[in-house]
Design brief:
Number of helices: 10
Helix content: 55-70%
Oligomer: single chain
Structural class: mainly alpha
Shape: elongated
Order of helices and strands: HEEHEHHHHHHHH
Distance between the termini: 139 Å
Number of strands: 3
Largest sheet: 3 strands, antiparallel
Length: about 300
């Protein structure tokens, strides 16, 4: 009995002492300084102070004329800061020279390169708008359709033939542009504005000679301006669309004339097949060899090219 009482007292004492132990542990943890760790502490890392960065170097532009007389030269060179002369080496390292040329000596190579790239990027549009390429390529395409051929000759062949025929037709105008505008500008005899005026005059005259009066009156009326007494005073913004409309009309008229003999062959072949009772046979199978034979015997491509050249 006594032993059981002693065990009960010990259990009660243990239950009462357990909360005290927990409170003591919590207080001990809170009292430790922040960042304290158990075990040996590593040695402190020494603080390294970086020197302030030097001020960025400025640049100086020198536009003094070149010593060889080729035109003004723009020089952009960095200004050496304190303590950098030995690191950069000789004076002039890192400089950029841009030769812009002078009107008396002609444009520089940089300007010519920029102008050449601009012309190459606009070349397809210039060929379509300012030359005879549109009329020629449309007539050649209509001739292929009149023969009943879908992909022969290929588009590359037709476009190449149209391009070289356009160069042949435009050669007098291009030679005049080269003699009056391009070469004097390359030699430095004229400025860019004068070169543009001299180059646009032959192109303006060529387009006016190939433009119908109806299309020209249409574009002048659409612009809201009065028709100038001198055709040379009509602006290029009016002449170019009128020239394109006139080229389309001329090309379609020539294509209609080319279609007539081939249409007659198709009608005759269809009538013969109908009279023979061969209604299930497509007429194009029979008419195509006859159209090719006729086209080759009369020298069709030569006649088409001759007609195109004579139309200009």
């Amino acid at each position: 009995m006594l032993a059981r009482l002693q065990n009960s007292i010990a259990a009660v004492a243990l239950v009462l002492a357990l909360p005290l132990v927990v409170v003591a542990l919590i207080l001990g943890t809170t009292a430790r300084p922040a960042g304290a760790q158990d075990g040996p502490q590593p040695p402190p890392v020494p603080e390294v102070t970086m020197p302030p960065a030097p001020a960025p170097a400025t640049s100086v532009a020198d536009s003094s004329p070149a010593s060889d007389g080729t035109g003004p030269v723009v020089t952009i060179a960095p200004v050496a800061g304190p303590g950098t002369a030995g690191d950069r080496g000789a004076a002039g390292d890192g400089s950029i020279n841009i030769d812009i040329g002078t009107p008396g000596d002609g444009p520089s190579q940089s300007v010519l390169l920029i102008v050449g790239l601009a012309v190459l990027s606009l070349a397809p549009s210039l060929v379509l708008m300012l030359s005879s390429f549109t009329r020629i390529v449309i007539v050649l395409s209509l001739t292929r359709n009149a023969l009943g051929l879908q992909g022969i000759p290929p588009n590359q062949v037709l476009v190449g033939l149209a391009l070289f025929l356009s160069l042949f037709v435009m050669s007098p105008t291009l030679n005049e542009v080269n003699d009056q505008a391009l070469q004097p500008y390359m030699n430095g005899a004229i400025t860019q504005e004068v070169a543009y005026d001299r180059a646009s005059a032959p192109m303006h005259a060529f387009m006016l000679s190939q433009t119908r009066s109806s299309e020209l009156d249409l574009m002048i009326g659409a612009s809201g301006d009065d028709r100038p007494a001198n055709p040379d005073d009509i602006p290029m913004s009016t002449v170019i669309p009128a020239f394109l409309l006139s080229e389309l009309k001329t090309a379609f008229i020539m294509g209609f004339v080319i279609f007539i003999p081939f249409l007659i062959i198709d009608i005759v072949v269809a009538a013969v097949l109908m009279s023979l009772g061969m209604m299930m046979l497509p007429p194009v199978f029979v008419s195509l060899p006859f159209k090719l034979l006729l086209f080759v015997m009369v020298g069709g491509w030569s006649l088409i090219v001759q007609t195109l050249l004579a139309s200009f």
